[in-house]
């Protein structure tokens, strides 16, 4: 699946987007955050405080307990500061 | 139901022109509330804000907010423009124009949409202060969450 990162999540991970293949047992947004956090130091820094991470599945906001099966695109970002 | 105008763009916008477009040829509108949000420098040290956005989702999320507003109030016109990219103090960032028969609906819809945009539209502001200095991401404010939460009752 395709994942996108924005703002300081993007800066800490080091890339704006990538293709990932998490193992089957990673079933929810929250589990994907935990899986990403242990990939390396940059991901660890980006995802260490999971509570500060917002997510979107296929361009719509998704809570951490949302299932990721069938998702084409998952985005991770900090709380929004537009307006 | 009217079709809202939603635009996400780097270019500046003209609030007066957008208001004129919305009311042109209309005889049924009794109230127009236009809110403009600007880039503000509090201490004389902000060079620019850099607004990052999630292309595609930004437009979709604002359109969802517009539909939500139209379901709550009988609006007769609605324009929402949000800029991204580099914006210097004094420049405009966001525009919401709500038109209705009466002022109550226009005021309420404009305020609802701004509260919604602040907390749910995928934009992030980075502050640039001084040449060569690393920018700092603006932190989300609890008062914005509180303002958005009052519409959920």
Describe the protein's topology.
The complex is a heterodimer of chains A (83) and B (153).
Chain A: E1 2-5, H1 7-13, E2 17-19, H2 29-37, H3 41-47, E3 54-57, E4 60-62, E5 73-77
Parallel strand pairs in A: 1-5
Antiparallel strand pairs in A: 1-2, 3-4, 3-5
Helix pairs in contact in A: 1-3, 2-3
Chain B: E1 5-9, H1 15-23, E2 31-38, E3 48-53, H2 57-72, E4 77-83, E5 85-87, E6 92-100, H3 103-120, E7 123-128, E8 136-137, H4 142-149
Describe the protein in words.
The complex is a heterodimer of chains A (83) and B (153). Chain A is of the alpha+beta class and 83 residues long. Helices cover 28% and strands 23% of the residues of chain A. Chain A has helices spanning 7-13, 29-37, 41-47; strands at 2-5, 17-19, 54-57, 60-62, 73-77. Chain A has a five-stranded mixed sheet with strand order 2-1-5-3-4. Chain B is α+β, with helices and mostly antiparallel strands. Chain B has one domain (5-152): Molybdopterin biosynthesis MoaE subunit (Aldehyde Oxidoreductase, domain 3). Chain B is built from four helices and eight strands. The mean pLDDT of chain B is 95. The chains are: A alpha+beta (83), B alpha+beta (153). The A-B interface holds A 4, 6-8, 56, 59-61, 75, 77-83 and B 37, 51-54, 56-57, 60-61, 82, 93-94, 114, 117-126, 137-140, 144.
